[in-house]
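Preliminary data (for renewal application), D-xylitol-5-phosphate complex.
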Amino acid sequence: MVKIAPSILSADFAAMGEAVSGISRAGADWIHFDVMDGHFVPNLTFGPGMCKAIRKDTELPLDVHLMVTDPKMWIEPFAKAGADDITFHIEAEPDPRELLSSIHSFGMKAGIVLNPATPAEAAKPFLEYCDLILLMTVNPGFGGQGFIYDVVEKIQTISRWIKEMDIPCELEVDGGVNPETAVLCRDAGASVLVAGSSIFHAADPKEMISVLRG
Ligand code: DX5
Ligand code: ZN
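Predicted structure:
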């Protein structure tokens, strides 16, 4: 069964603790934490301080998605803040293998993220060093955007490689996930679905989580 990772980017920032504990009770598997630096993407969100603050509101894994120009400098602060895994954009990092091993050295899981325009081949040399691969199905920066359908083929390709290599790598999809697009992602081989607006703006987030899970 796929895991569901609500993105707290779409939660009420003025009531973040309640949002995190509520979504945990509603059946979320991971909490997705979108870090933006106003440089790699044209938006600013939150950092290790917020991560540390919400750590006490949930026992679920905190899945930290770094959308920053210099991911290296944030590994230790997020490790200390209680992150369980960190993913960084391959477009931002000249030496992904080194950074993956640095994340592992802090006892966290590690993964790379590919923007919609970045080809699957860019991830291939690093798959065996990753605990997860995150495929963006929107251009990063904002919640509530439309799903980019062209990425479905890339989900299929990387899912096939993970099976062929027989490695325990999660395949996570992020952006525009709703009941209609979740089916495509699951069928293409995704194992973790990130969803922000569809969960936090749902009348019944618990029901939405179960619909997305399929
Ligand atoms: C976008 C973020 C996503 C975003 C998803 O840059 O990485 O995690 O919050 O939001 P929705 O589900 O609304 O597209
Ligand atoms: Zn994200």
